[in-house]
Design a protein that fits this description.
It is a single chain. With 283 residues, the chain is α/β, with parallel strands linked by helices. Helix content is 39%, strand content 17%. The protein has a single domain, classed as NAD(P)-binding Rossmann-like Domain (Rossmann fold, 3-Layer(aba) Sandwich), CATH 3.40.50.720. It contains eleven helices and eleven strands. α1 packs across α8.
Amino acid sequence: MRVLVAGCGWLGAAIGRALVARGDRVVGVRRDPASAGALARLGIEPLVLDLAAPGAVARIPAADAVIACQAAGREGVEAYRAAYLLATGALLEAAARDGAGAFVYTGSTGVFGQRDGSEVREETPLAPAGPAADVLAEAEALVRTAPERCGVPARVVRLSGLYGPGRAGTIERVRSGALALGPGDGAFMNFCHLEDAVAFALGALARGAPGAVYHGTDASPPRRREVVAWIAARLGIEPPRSAGPGDRAGPDRRVSSVATRAALGIALRFPTFREGFEPLLPR
């Protein structure tokens, strides 16, 4: 297939590598011209394009399938609107124009703002907890309604906290004491390793249903205290402690991917954070 990967950064490049390895032709879209050489070395055809800019649709090449995993370049509602609404809208318009056979949008479990430790499944009503999360929910609606609105067989994969080689900030946060035991440490954390995120995206590409929502997350969400204690033990330090408010003001929910894994035939390479973080620890 000819696959367009939009937002071909850390996650998108990993998806692109997997597609190239199986024999697909991949076009990777980035805003930054400096990224072109790195993508080309991976066998990905680079396309430097700001998808939120006026006239972007005309420059989007035809593709058999689209994977939209662009991210906001900075914090703030306007940056979120550009990355998740305007860019996704342009991609959907181009996909409708060219008759793309599949469209996967990698969304975020940030659309769930529950704070009661409850389990959230694919069908759980959204509970965005702020303006940025409102934009994420709006972008999801744009994708989910695309099959009826413009004939694009689009589906959503909500990814939880991504980590993997090159992105192991949780370990450093424990080392520095930014992630600590204390008030709010019973809140659940939700993780998805990069390799599993790629598997979820490609599974949705191959076997996803138009208009469907899937969850890309591991099998066992831990409480924050478990993560802090486990990482501290591996680092050989005392678990950091804080008397501050911790994550009490943040979300506290357990994201489930049971139904998604069954529907898409996904076998997790890293079913818990322990298997995933172990190879990332300093030796």
